[in-house]
Design goal:
single chain; about 140 residues; mainly alpha; two-stranded antiparallel sheet; two-stranded antiparallel ribbon; 3 helices; rod-shaped; binds zinc ion
């Protein structure tokens, strides 16, 4: 670009009103041409408030999605632990029921045998009830 072309270009598109941060050196005015007019000022595509807002919205969306995925994975892991604890408790009740059933078969006094079988049914119902507490 010749000097004349540069002067004409700057007249048409003045410099961006944005600031460039340069660490310890401080801030400098952006050297790009301002091709976007917003709020009575010229801005380059990096510093135009609408473009900055767009980038922030995109970054926030990505961040939200990332945390949603992390939360979902965490919940799934917690549910898996919960479900194995529930299943272990139900299996204990099932085991007690099976044991009671086997022992009740050997009892000759029918009232005692029936009481044992009633308890066996209670264990089985308890196991079924506890399995309903499983999470998806
Ligand atoms: Zn700029």
């Amino acid at each position: 670009m010749t000097d004349m072309q540069e002067i004409v270009a700057r007249a048409i598109d003045p410099n961006c009103a944005g600031l460039v941060y340069a660490g310890r050196a401080g801030t400098f005015p952006c050297s790009r041409q301002g091709r976007f007019q917003e709020g009575g000022k010229s801005w380059c595509s990096q510093h135009a408030p609408s473009k900055v807002a767009e980038r922030h919205a995109k970054a926030n969306k990505k961040y939200d999605e990332k945390w949603k995925a992390i939360d979902a994975a965490k919940l799934q892991a917690e549910n898996k632990i919960w479900n194995s604890a529930i299943e272990a408790a139900a299996e204990v009740l099932d085991g007690l029921a099976e044991d009671l059933f086997t022992r009740a078969e050997q009892i000759e006094i029918s009232s005692v045998r029936n009481a044992m079988k009633d308890q066996m049914v209670a264990y089985k119902l308890g196991a079924a009830a506890i399995r309903k507490l499983k999470k998806p």
